[in-house]
Write a structure and sequence with these properties.
Layout (H helix, E strand, L loop, with lengths): L1 H22 L8 E3 L8 H13 L2 H10 L5 H20 L6 H15 L8 H13 L8 H9 L8 H16 L15 E3 L10
Antiparallel strand pairs: 1-2
Helix pairs in contact: 1-2, 2-4, 4-6, 5-6
């Protein structure tokens, strides 16, 4: 048990280091950490989390995520992360030449991870379609689901406020859902939040 906890702490620290490096800010406290299915820190997704803080208003982004709730919270969060990833990749590929390779590896790993699953949650289906499109493949979604995916295909020109406003519009249009400040915090399976009163990791 102690070895497992030590490994989890080590991977959490690695995740934070990826985020801090991408954000160019070693003082921020990220709301999310990303891990692969084997428990190791996911380099690409943690870079995306860090880049979110580099390019967008951290307080507004974190506050918006905390407003998301309800039984479909993971779907709403996942769609916003798809939008953020799409915009941030466009921004950073001009600066970091390695982004294209890392993105392709992420897409391949994500598809391979679920290849043997017989059933997918809706966000997993949409995320897999996003990964297929990254690899230049058809999305394999229905027309309605593909429209939803592309509604969250945000671009590099969008500001923090534009992204959040578009997300509000999309959530209302496709789900008749409005974010609420009363929403409770929960853990998302792909982007694991830091627990309150968590152990301070040395930087």
């Amino acid at each position: 048990m102690a070895e497992i906890e030590e490994q989890e702490l080590r991977e959490a620290k690695r995740a934070c280091n990826f985020i801090w490096a991408a954000a160019e800010n070693y003082e921020l406290e990220p709301l999310f950490l990303a891990f692969a299915s084997n428990g190791t820190a996911d380099m690409y997704l943690n870079l995306i989390i860090g880049l979110t803080y580099k390019w967008y208003d951290q307080e507004k982004i974190d506050d918006f995520f905390n407003q998301l709730g309800g039984k479909d919270r993971e779907l709403y969060e996942g769609l916003l992360w798809i939008g953020l990833e799409n915009a941030l990749y466009q921004k950073e590929r001009k600066i970091r030449s390695v982004m294209e390779e890392l993105r392709r590896e992420y897409a391949l790993d994500n598809l391979n991870r679920y290849r043997n699953y017989k059933e997918y949650a809706r966000i997993e289906q949409i995320r897999n379609a996003h990964c297929r499109e990254i690899l230049g493949q058809p999305s394999e979604l229905t027309t309605e689901e593909e429209e939803l995916l592309h509604a969250f295909s945000y671009t590099e020109e969008m500001t923090t406020d534009e992204i959040l406003e578009q997300t509000r519009e999309n959530l209302w249009k496709y789900f008749s859902y409005r974010p609420s400040k009363a929403a409770k915090k929960k853990v998302f399976t792909f982007f694991r939040k830091l627990p309150e009163h968590s152990i301070l990791l040395e930087k």
